[in-house]
Amino acid sequence: MLDVERAEAAPVEHYAPLVRLVYVTLPRRPGRHRRVLAAHGLVQRALPRRGLVVPG
Hints:
Layout (H helix, E strand, L loop, with lengths): L1 H12 L1 H11 L6 H15 L10
């Protein structure tokens, strides 16, 4: 069970780099602010449901 918990914690631990990766892969057209919001939203949807605590 410990391995499952570590695997679920990995996206939370690497939240900021994941957001940056998604940000650079999104199209430039909607503008910077909308891309940032979209990147955060996509990464948050990918997080495990019980691990919604994102480091600030």
